[in-house]
Task: structure prediction
Amino acid sequence: MNKEKIAGVYIRVSTLDQVREGFSLSEQKLQLKSYCKSKGYKIYKIYSDEGISAKTGNKRPSFDEMMNDVKLKNINIIVSFKMDRLTRSVYDNEKLMKFVNSQGCDLDCLADESNTMTSNGRMVLRIMTTVSQAEIERTSERTKVGLAGAIRVGHIPSLTPLGFKRQDKKLVIDTMTSDIIKRVYNLYSLGYSHQKISNTFNNENLLNKTWYDSTISKILSNPIYKGDYITNKGKDNQMYYEDVVDKIVSKELWEDCQVQKKRNARHFERSAIYLFTNKLKCPYCNCFLGGRATKKKNGKRYFYYSCIKCKTNINENKVFMQMLGIIYNLVQLDDFMNNHLTPFIKHKTSIDDTDYGKEINSLDKELDRIKTAYIKGIVKLNTFDNEIKQIDYKKEVLIKKSNEQNQMDNLNYTLEDLMLLEDKREIDSMINDDFFEKIFYFADLERTERKELISKYIDYIEVERNGQDVKIPNIYFKKQFIAEYTNYSKERGYKYMVDDIVGIKDIMDSKVKTKEQALSYVQKLNKYHNVNYYEIELQDFKSKGIETNYDDEVFIKIMPIKNKESYSKDKIKLGIIGASKKQILQEN
Result:
């Protein structure tokens, strides 16, 4: 005698199914009730999951309830419209078949004639499940390809990060807030902590919001600000996309900040300000030296740095004395970068054609609208105050941008003007002998300002102790600084004085000039100071160096020279501009 079939009727539809195949829950329910009647099944309950796919891992409350009723022997056959309503995974299908078989329960699907009651039905069931899984995988692949293509043209599938806005669904730089992002990275590269940056922004009431150190940390970690994007970060299917949007900060600055974050995770600066926090590195064990301070009875503080592994203590003042030459160059360089090179690069690489006047007028109209809405009682006081503050902030930013745009429009000097200015200043410093003036200037700065100057250019310094003396084997500069100065140097020809940063290969990679161009430049520089010009074969320069007419000569510029009669690389010479301090003093 056949056992009575008590059916659990399962119906499910996802949003995609509804659109693609057009069978609704009500339609499935109607057809399955009729099917059960024709088969003589008694319906125990109809289980319904709406808007949920059968993908592995998805939670389906009604499906789980039905499985529990199978365990409780409330039902002994599961009836569904198609097998893919129950599962679309081969693995899940086998698991389901094994489970219902162990519970004395069967499966029966109306549309694809698959069931577990006959061998033919079980074969069809397995085939249909395999087809369904293949369809899921194809859909997933198409989705991934479409997503990757969208990301590569700037359609970033995430919340719009600060510093960007949406334009035609693409992520583009928002001039209203991008300067905040630049400021976060610049302050951090100068040695500011997450907390100090957030405190600074809160004190300024920036954007009329509360800033947290975690917010700063997320900004610093987000590669979108260097133009890159990551999907499924930290997972096995993580994908990295480069240069998908315009970058707000350079890749070099972004990378410098990541290095700084790792160091800061190990070292914390508390009450004292250390000039070389996370800058001094032991050349033996590769550890960064931690700082400590002592205070004498006279109230004066002394700063020391120690290596945990090598048990080495180094006096900060001795490091400073070893770095006098570098400090002098940094002070000069900082002045040149801030007042000349950075504005020049910004002018040449960032053409801003935004109509700020139009945007300011638009904000004024928005201000009038919110005032009218407040007077009519449409908006409340707190909403009105917040809107006014936001508009005032945006207007302040636009006015600043407009002023910068006007300044840039008036900045019309050429790269050659910039080079002449730098070389003239170099020779002027020889005459004035301002070495100690620059050193005293640095020493007179507040410790915070001194630390910022060091942090701005120097990545780390290898330092070791030899008895009571301190030795600095190597100094490594930040990628951001190297990139900016190297790009400029490729145009101007390298300074011989920075050969601790660049070498022969870098010099040969700089822009090759003809002899006529080099002589023309020397003639222009001679209007300010009498300089000497030398040409030397590359192989002679490598083996013997430069033989000059003066013992006290300083080399202002070194560059590859290509003569018209021969353009082969082995015929390239080096053109060198030098200036004799003694000769210049006599002339003046």
Notes: Residues 89 and 193 are 50 Å apart (CA to CA). The chain is about 50% helix and 15% strand. The chain has a mean pLDDT of 77.
